[in-house]
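Hi V.,

You were right to ask for the full record rather than a summary. Here it is.
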Amino acid sequence: MDRIRIVGGNPLNGTIPISGAKNAALPLMIAGLLTDEKLVLENVPRLADVSQLQRILGNHGIDITVNGKRRGDDAYAGQTLEIDARVIVDTTAPYELVSKMRASFWVIAPLLARMGEAKVSLPGGCAIGTRPVDFHLDALRALGAEIEIDAGYVLARAPKGLKGARIVFPKVSVGATHTAIMAASLADGETIIENAAREPEIVDVADCINAMGGRIEGQGTSTIRVVGVPRLKGARHSVLPDRIETGTYAMAVAMTGGDVLLSGARADLLQSALDTLREAGADITVSNEGLRVKRNGAGISPVTVTTEPFPGFPTDLQAQLMALTTRARGTSRITETIFENRFMHVQELARLGARIHLDGETATIEGVERLKGAPVMATDLRASVSLVIGALAAEGESMIHRVYHLDRGFERLEEKLSACGAEIERLAG
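Predicted structure:
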């Protein structure tokens, strides 16, 4: 397995291009199952999860053509995927594929809506919590699906098609909202989704389905209205910029000091996180080019944060913020309310010299004057990049193991950081 070696202490200066959002690209690819015409997705990031989902969709007979950068394009320009789901040869998503990536469970909605049936493996557990699929299944039942669970598989049928309905989620769920929108887009009649997730990625998927001829309104609010249509057509859609990648690099600059332009970033996608960063001492300015993040001279101030669904502080930036606060001048508190088991990075940050105390879902971080390089182990995607942030500011060398987690969500991380002055390299094996 690859490792990443970092020698800390260098401020970051320069430009980091922000890639397309993984958390939008995956459901957008799955939405390609809703039509028998071509869906063209631009600005798709080059990530392990995207490649894995290409294999999963290929299992259903979907033809995906990948166009890389053309001569003269920016080296970091996203790829373009042409998704052709004209012929779906198999409505089964097997365990060996679904178990590798939870988001692939979402194929149940377009398969059921378009083909009238789907057999999809239950995704099982996850390193950062159980994340059950009950809300997904309840939404499909509300739309008239017959659902049974047998030998670890969800068998869903709607031989006469899905019918519009009122869906009320007891708790905000991004995945279940994606499922409900996709299924309702081909259902007969009107569907009202209440307590819907408001994340920008939900808006991006709904906007794409509308470009395909769908009738969705209210995306970005807690009540979404979907009027089903008999069929959807092809479309061309560009994936929105990744707000988690944006926040991650912004925190890296706040941690190390320096001055970096996050080109292509959009402030409206992560306002809560930017407010927290400013409170911590970063100087952030918004322009047509993106976001410029600076921290020159001033120390890092402590913060108190609770993770919440959008527009609150995102759980996917919690580990990165914790790394930043390890060097704050004072005590910070971070409360995680979205996922259980999402503090696995704490013990690894402690190896760098961090002082963190856990009490249930709250972490208390006492800032220290300096961190020291050490060998550390990545446990999940966001935890792994928090270790990168810590190592960038630590004295001496750090070696980060199990970096395959990083490849799931961060495109060319070492290249982007080294171009801004970080001493970082990937070591094979």
